[in-house]
Amino acid sequence: MIKDRFGRPITSLRISLTQKCNLECFYCHREGENKENDDEMTSEEIAKIVEIASHFGISKVKLTGGEPLLRKDIFDIISKIRSIKGIVEVSMTTNGTLLAEKAKKLREVGLSRVNVNFPSRKRDVYKAITRRDYVKNVEEGINEAYKVGLNPVKVNMVVLKSLNDEEIWDMINYLADKDLTLQLIELEKLGNVKEEIYNKYFFDLDKIEKKLLNDSFKVEVKNLQNRKIYYLKSGGRIELVRPFHNSEFCMNCTRIRITSDGKIKPCLMKMNNHVDILSSIRTNASDNELHKIFLKAIMLREPFFR
Q: What are the backbone dihedrals phi and psi of residue 2, each rounded to the nearest 5 degrees, phi first?
């Protein structure tokens, strides 16, 4: 297993498959990419990058976007990745709008689990956040994902002050009945979120965390990142994602990212240290050369908050 200069093991690869999306969420951080990109990697190129990553002991891959299910070759991408020696898990983050019709096939080709972004079950609030009316589609997608075994299904709820913060407990109860996990996520000052938007919509989860602690029969600390999982007496499972309030989240990061145009991105928060690997793949660089490029990116990693 490879470690960066700060002794952090790199175990997972997060790949943005596209910048295209069928929603327009105003808080989207675009996986740290700041412009549209039409030069997407092919399924073969994606698989080659994963193969290079697996050489360094990386065993888990998460597919993101944009919306990854907009890729017409999504099943081929997953199948190719799962066939690579050393890869034990392929997961996906999706907005869930296309999930119901694709969940069964995704499971069949090797997808392990999904995270579904679902900011609100109220149509008017969902439309205010995403500019679309897809609440029913997302609910159907979540149900189908659970039904076919893409578990654990995790629902990601970015909490936004004066928009959906009053829905937290409704969402908890809704998912508890379905044996699903809710991730409450604090707004990040990244991507589309500029200072004005951040100041207007940031919601501090301190009070929620105190109530969760009182209402839980068990609290687990997840891996090295000090992320807590609350098991509620009522049956719900809640994770809090607070990267700006948890220095250990950053100091113990175990992932490295690939942008949709084939750049290795050592840190979500930084825009000035990308390493191009796709150009070398397209000019038929040897595996040894590609290993050196990947290693260079790993050695550029450093904690953003320290």
A: -85, 145
The percentage of the chain sitting over the pLDDT mark of 70, rounded to a whole number, equals 94
Q: Helix/strand/coil (H, E, C) string of the chain?
A: CCECCCCCECCEEEEECCCCCCCCCCCCCHHHCCCCCCCCCCHHHHHHHHHHHHHCCCCEEEEECCCHHHCCCHHHHHHHHHCCCCCCEEEEEECCCCHHHHHHHHHHHCCCEEEEECCCCCHHHHHHHHCCCCHHHHHHHHHHHHHHCCCCCEEEEEEECCCCHHHHHHHHHHHHCCCCEEEEEECCCCCCCCHHHHHHHECCCHHHHHHHHHHEEEEEEEHHHCEEEEEECCCCEEEEECHHHCHHHHHCCCEEEECCCCEEECCCCCCCCCEECHHHHHCCCCHHHHHHHHHHHHHCCCCCCC
In contact, 94 and 69? CB cutoff 8 Å: yes
Q: Radius of gyration (Cα) for the chain, nearest Å?
A: 19
First CA to last CA distance, the chain: 24
**Of the ranges 25-39, 91-105, 190-204, the best mean pLDDT one:** 91-105
Residue 83: how many other CB atoms lie within 10 Å? 12
